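Exercise 3.2. Students should predict the tertiary structure of the chain below and write it as structure tokens, then compare their answer with the key that follows.

Predict this chain's 3D structure.
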Amino acid sequence: MLAAAGSRVCLGRLLAEGQLHAPLLRPAARGIAATAASSSSAHNRSPGPISSAEKMYKVPGSYKPSNFDKKILMWTGRFKTEEEIPSRIPPEMLDTARNKARVKACYLMIGLTIIACFAVIASARRTEHHESLTSWNLAKKAKWREEAAVSAEFKTK
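Answer key:
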């Protein structure tokens, strides 16, 4: 009979109708059958009173946006002015606006990085061809040594 049923729904229906008994099933099939039977009988029950835990963790249907959220909504183009934004908005709208703002910020950072790379390349080309940071450093230290020698000469006199 189990092979003829072939699916969880049929197995649950057979168990609910009393044609198939849970103790005769293997432990894994017993769990599937019990789940299917309880889900089919769950439709027949009327909803009971809501517990305090369900009230405490209830997801709100709307969200009051902060000033920063309003700026994000305007920056992403959802609203033109701050006055157009309603006092309550769905959380999905704010999530979508935040995701668009993240993408725009990433594109902005990518653009600034590319501009900075070109600025570094341009500043490197302005230097003389045979200059490097090492030669700059050696010249600076030589200048310091000369200044230190001159100041030491004046102190001894």
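Discussion points: The CA atoms of residues 73 and 96 lie 9 Å apart. The chain has seven helices and no strands.
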